[in-house]
Predict the structure.
Amino acid sequence: MLRITAIVILLAAIPPVCGLLGAYIFGMRIGEEVFRPQLDKALISVAVTWVVSIALVFLLGLLIDALAENFDAERNDL
């Protein structure tokens, strides 16, 4: 269980970190204007996205566990 948790934590960090790097390297275009986000707000956005991703994986696991009996599978309590 600990190994899977570590993998989820690492994989959930990839999209927000890549989004942060992309926003700083290439900037964000809105209309004709290109701007780069402020560092403090961008880091908060990365942290929130990372936490929400981990929470959604956990909730999806609970949903799959709850629906397991409908598909003739065993429930595995967390």
Observations:
- The chain has two helices and two strands.
- The chain has a mean pLDDT of 91.
